[in-house]
Each structure stands twice: as structure tokens, then as C-alpha cells.
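Tutorial handout. Part one gives the primary structure; part two gives the three-dimensional structure as C-alpha cells.
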Amino acid sequence: MTEEEILSTLDNSNDGYYCSFVELGHVYSYLIDSRLNVFRDDNHRWALAIERLGYNPRAGAITLDINYYGNCLTNLEFYNGRPTSYYSIQPNDADNFNQTIDDESLKSDAKIWLVRGQEVYLSHNKQDYVDAGIKLKEYEQNEIRVEEVGRFVVSQNRDLFRATDNELHKSIPADLKKILVLDEWFHKDFKLQFSSAITDDHLRQTYELNRRFTELSEMNFENFAKLFRLQEVLEDDWNRDIWENNRPSSYETWKMLAKVIVADDSNQYKPTLEPNTHWINWPESGSM
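Part two.
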């Protein structure tokens, strides 16, 4: 077990399919809460379980995604025949949740959510949200959005929405010990763009197939090819910039956590960067 091996595992967590580095600013899910759990044992095995709680309007649910990384992961979920790096849980009772929501807003008569079998209070009082640091968007008068309700409820009942030890160990061997838990840290989203290489012949076939049915009929092949190759260059530049500036090994959070794991010493985590994992720092989350 070395710091370099740990950081390399995190840097190369994106496979272009269903494994990726945890994305707090995911555009399909409003960030509500997050937590980071660090595990290791005495046999050079280590793992991270990073929790991301968010509201996904497309799924119509508040979902807790546990993102797994390590050198001993087991029982990973599969999708389309490929492993995924996360496991999703819905802490809310689905029927109860749907009865309280109308078009992504809280119904005026909604009183409680059932979360892991327990009733939690739903507030319609604007001051409660203000006191919790939540500024209501109010696209319509007195409207309270689901993500705003979720953020308020979690501020009052955080443990109910956190992963249990059994859930954390779903893909981590049970004998690994938890050596550090962080409720906040400095984070950068790290998502590379992947696309298959396209030959000139394939590009020509694509052009011919589409030009009769799209606006490509107004563009000759040479200009189409030039624009496509330019997009490839821009994508390469994007990936290069993200790799240089956002990969986990490029900043202190993950370097320190690698030291924690190798030394089995939580005191190695001494951050100098201000934590930014609170939802207020990720306004683009859920933006699509």
C-alpha cells in the first residue's frame, strides 16, 4: 500500500462508462448533503466510501449514492454488463414521498416524510428555512421546491439520510475498519470526456447517412469534417485542463487522505483549504 497507488486509483476512476469520480455538482441532481468515509486494515487493503445525497427530478426521488474506491472492492453493482462505482439508496418511503410532492414542489397539506421508517416534520414556515440558511427560490408564490425541503429536513435529521455501516460495507469487506469520517472537505469535480476515435471513412459514412435528413444538407463534407476534428481538439484541451487541475492527486485533500490510509493515522489529515462540499457551493447541481 503506497500513497502513489491510492492516488493513481482515484485519478483513474473514470472509465468512460459507469465508473467515475464522485460528482458533487452533477447537473441532473440537486446536491443536498455529502460525507466521506475512510477504511483500511492491516493487510494493505483500503477503501473510500463517499456519500452524495441529492434530489433527482428525473428519478422523482431523493437518492443517496455511495461512491466506492479502493483495492479490495467486492459486490459492485453492474449496468449493461459493466461494473459501476456507486450504489444507490432511497431513504424516503416512495409512496409517502410521492404523496407530498406536486410538480417538484411541496404540497400545501404535506406534513411528514417517512424516512427509514421514521416520521420527519415538513415545514411550510419560511422562517424555518431562513434559520437553516436556505433561501427559497419561490418561482411561484409560497412555493417550496423539493430540494429546499430536502435540505431543511436533512439539517434537522442528518443521521437518517446518512448511509448505515451495513450500506457502507455493501462493497467493502466487513473486516476493514473505519479510520476517518469527514462531513466536509475541499473538493473538485473530476469528469473527463470520452469518445471513440473516428476514422475518415467512418466520418464520411456518418456525413452521408445524416445529410439527407438534417441541416447537414447545407454543409459540404470538407467543412463538416473540419468542424468535427476541431471539436476533437477542443475535447482534448478540455480533458488536458481537467486532468492538470482537477484530478485528485493535483490537490491536498486526497494527498492527505492517502497519507492517512498508509500511516493508519487520522492526524495526517491537516487541511489548509476551506471546505466547499456544502450544497450552497454547488449552484450548478441539478441545473439540467
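Part three, for discussion. The two ends are 40 Å apart (CA to CA). The longest strand covers residues 30-40.
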